[in-house]
Amino acid sequence: MGIGISVLLLVVGLILLTGAVDLPASVTAHVATTTVGWICVIVALIGFLIAMFAGRRQRPPV
């Protein structure tokens, strides 16, 4: 997972957490959007940290 996917997941998670988009009642009846939002935010942060640490380990080309 790269930084781009992490940013995308972070944006989706924050949108779900804040309720910025009204989802249909059929979705909100079966899915806890705040829980899914928190899961997206946590996975995004973990992915971002992994991408940052993996990028630090690469040696510059000689």
What does this structure look like?
- With 62 residues, this protein is an all-alpha fold.
- The protein has one domain.
- It contains 3 helices and no strands.
- The longest helix has 25 residues, at 33-57.
- The protein is rod-shaped, with a radius of gyration of 16 Å.
Can you tell me the residue ranges where pLDDT is under 50 for at least 5 consecutive residues? none
H/E order of the elements? Answer: HHH
Oligomer: single chain
Anisotropy-based shape: rod-shaped
Label this structure with key terms.
single chain; 62 residues; mainly alpha; 3 helices; 0% strand
Question: In a few lines, what is going on in this structure?
Answer:
The protein contains three helices and no strands. With 62 residues, the chain is mainly α.
Layout of strands and helices, then pairs:
Blueprint: H1 3-18, H2 25-28, H3 33-57
